[in-house]
Design a protein that fits this description.
- This protein has about 425 residues and is α+β, with helices and mostly antiparallel strands.
- The protein folds into three domains: about 5-160, SH3 type barrels, CATH 2.30.30; about 185-280, MgtE N-terminal domain-like (MgtE N-terminal fold, Alpha Horseshoe), CATH 1.25.60; about 290-420, Roll (CBS-domain), CATH 3.10.580.10.
- Helices cover about 40% and strands about 25% of the residues.
- It has 20 helices and 22 strands.
- It has a five-stranded antiparallel β-sheet with strand order 9-6-5-4-10. The protein has a four-stranded antiparallel β-sheet with strand order 1-13-14-15.
- A hairpin with a 2-residue loop joins strand 13 and strand 14.
- The two termini are about 50 Å apart.
């Protein structure tokens, strides 16, 4: 039967003498090793010397909770083992490093590690139960925890920890993929923004392609460029293909010209052609903001035909709330809403359904003007036309939010609003 003995902090354990069953000193606790494979992280070994790959097996420890770590065997009989690729050093890979708090979905620093000591069959077992992320953990390590005795202890349970160091990160992020799938892209972007240079790279590689594409569009431009320029060429090209055309074009604009040209060569021809077309617009214009992934319908369609068309192509559109009607030459004739289409008689033609007075912007209008138009008329999107009335693209409200919403949380809220109501493809 298992019996709980005590809770021990890693900072209190490190540096203790290790003695065999005859009281002879074998070494000191320099670090401990765990298996982090999804279940309770059990301590499996002790690093006791300057040789980094040699361990005393944890299963021969008789007593962890004392002034010394006492072994159940004599030093002559200890079967020294070597660390395996599945084992992780607790101090090296967790202490003082960033981890993801999967409960609060934020980046935190580990100041100490809480261990549980339990007894079974006359021997004591040690397991990780939490990370201490509070100021008390930091002060404890220098013997000054009494200064923070009035402060609450701040722990993250081991189930809610995802390390970000390369070795632990690669392992644990794979285990947590299902949990990350539930996160909104804005929340993933917030996590990425808070990470350091190396952790960001580890975390981003662990995301699925669809989730990575959704999240990168929510990042600051300099963070986007940093991530993509560090990826291998093939992976970066695949990411560009998964992004909305306007997001991919904006990203390429911010990259060094040589790198952008190199990636365009690796992107599929149709996507590359679309991106080159968007890139020829100056960066401060409506043309540089617009997406070409929208729904336009021929004026000769009936409402029933339009609904069938939506069923086939809506998945590839960035905005489906406003539906634009064009003539045979693709000149913009009018607009109606998805709601109006659903409520309309199936046999009515789009010519009878559309609103011919459409608020539009020109391809060379400034971003500021586009933002003012969207804000003034309360639009979710505005069509972009040229001087002759040809429809070139659509600028959605979240593409201009940065220009008149300083607070990033407001932008996040608007993005959630659009996604929840199916007004924008995720």
């Amino acid at each position: 039967m298992q019996k709980h003995i005590a809770e021990i902090y890693f900072s209190q354990l490190r540096g203790k003498d290790i003695c065999d069953n005859k009281g002879r000193t074998v070494g000191k606790v320099k670090d401990i090793v765990t298996l982090w494979t999804g279940g309770l992280p059990m301590i499996t070994g002790i690093l006791y010397s300057e040789e980094p790959d040699k361990l005393i097996p944890a299963d021969i420890v008789q007593n962890w909770d004392g002034k010394q770590v006492i072994l159940a065997e004599s030093s002559e009989k200890i079967n020294i083992t070597q660390i395996t690729h599945q084992q992780l050093f607790v101090g090296k890979w967790l202490l003082d490093n960033q981890v993801i708090d999967l409960k609060g979905y934020k980046i935190v620093r580990v100041n100490d590690i809480l261990l549980s000591c339990d007894e079974q069959d006359g021997k004591q077992r040690l397991s990780i139960i939490a990370a201490d992320i509070g100021i008390r953990g930091l002060l404890r390590r220098i013997g000054l925890e009494f200064l923070a005795s009035r402060l609450d202890k701040k722990y993250i349970s081991w189930q809610h920890i995802t390390p970000l160091e390369k070795k632990t990160g690669s392992l644990k992020l794979k285990l947590d993929k299902d949990r990350f799938k539930k996160l909104h892209p804005v929340e993933i972007a917030d996590l990425l923004e808070d990470m350091d240079y190396d952790s960001r790279n580890v975390f981003f590689k662990a995301l699925g392609s669809e989730q990575a594409a959704e999240a990168i569009g929510k990042l600051k431009e300099n963070t986007q460029v940093e991530i993509v320029t560090r990826m291998d060429k093939k992976q970066a090209a695949e990411l560009l293909e998964d992004l909305h055309a306007d997001e991919a074009a904006n990203l390429l604009r911010e990259m060094p010209k040589e790198k952008a040209a190199e990636l365009l060569q690796l992107v599929k021809k149709d996507k590359a052609k679309e991106l080159k077309w968007l890139l020829h617009y100056k960066s401060d214009t409506a043309g540089s903001l617009m997406t070409t992934e929208f729904i336009s319908l021929p004026v000769t369609f009936t409402a029933g035909q339009a609904i069938e068309h939506l069923r086939r192509f809506a998945q590839d559109a960035e905005m489906i709330y406003y539906l634009y009607v064009t003539d045979v030459d693709e000149k913009l004739l009018g607009v109606f809403s998805l709601r109006e289409l659903i409520l309309a008689d199936q046999e009515i033609t789009l010519g009878a359904l559309l609103h011919s007075k459409v608020i539009t912007v020109q391809v060379n209008d400034s971003r500021k003007k586009v933002a003012e138009i969207i804000h003034k008329y309360g639009l979710l999107a505005v069509p972009v036309i040229d001087a002759e009335g040809f429809l070139h693209g659509v600028v959605t409200v979240d593409d201009v939010l940065d220009l008149f919403m300083v607070d990033r949380t407001l932008k996040a809220s608007m993005s959630r609003y659009l996604n929840k109501r199916g007004l924008r493809r995720k």
